[in-house]
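tool_call predict_complex ligand=copper (II) ion
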Amino acid sequence: MRKFHYLFFTLLSFNALADSEGSPSVSTVDHHAPIGVMGDHTHAKGEWMISYRYMTMDMQDNQLGSSSITPEEIVTTIANRFANPPAMPPTLRVVPLSMTTQMHMVGMMYAPSDTVTLMTMVSYLDKEMDHVTFSGASGTERLGEFTTHVSGVGDTKIGALVNILSGKKHNLHLNIGMSLPTGDIDNEDEVLTPMNTQTTLRLPYPMQLGSGTFDIEPGITYRGFHGKLGWGSQLKAVIRTGENSEDYTLGDKFTLANWGSYRFTDNVSGSLRLTYTDTDSIEGIDPQIQAPVQTADPDNQGGTMWDVGAGINVITSSGHRFALEYTYVIDQDVNGVQLVMQDMLSIGYQYAF
Ligand SMILES: [Cu+2]
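tool_result ok
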């Protein structure tokens, strides 16, 4: 976390370069950050914006901390926190192999004044996880594979962006957000047990659709422009409040994104982004999630991640924006044993009026 504070103060030092000659035009292609960054821009008084984003995230292969670990190593060396022989084996017996998350997000922004922009976003999620089950209470005999699937509405975001500084060159705003627990956290699906039976269970934490808590999402966003160049930084946190109805709290999350952009033409810009994410593990435990699989242990959640993104933004002469960003994870250090993120793709459409 110390590394994070250092980066934060680097960000604030940009403030010293402030000017105040009026905001850059919202119709400039590079006015918006890479599409994977949320709450990156504000609007002028009376302006509305509608947006749609599609994002897909791909996880594959497991790590113990920062080193890779095979399914066979997991089921022979990682203790099952629910061990209770003979009913529950001493080590894990089911290993996630991959996970795909797809998100559809519909957002709206409205600026009641030049200082404040309000925003809201609803989402629909689709998650799929593939697993391998090992036979019996010990050993490395693979019994079979199965996939769990869940889809539905995710948590709903509301918030306000407050301009501190809006200049031609330097812009700074505060992100004041809240996440409302509209996503279900009691989703179930059928699994293959080490005893070769099919049973329907409450799915582990990563397969649930929401946090179950009201989350505060504060942040600060800086954007700079000079000629065809643009750059920016956003520091954001997700702070969970209280405990959800199933007796746990997801970990708080901190994200620092830094990006640069280049305007090739009036209608097309390209971007590069470097993002650092630090997520805490879960506090508490859902008594209905008990299985010999790593994802059922609240300690196997969170960690740190560095990723790089390459993006393209396009704006038509009538103001329709289309954007795409591909993000590749370059380094990950997970708490305990977890599937690791490989890459993410975001596609978006935005229209202001
Ligand atoms: Cu907007």
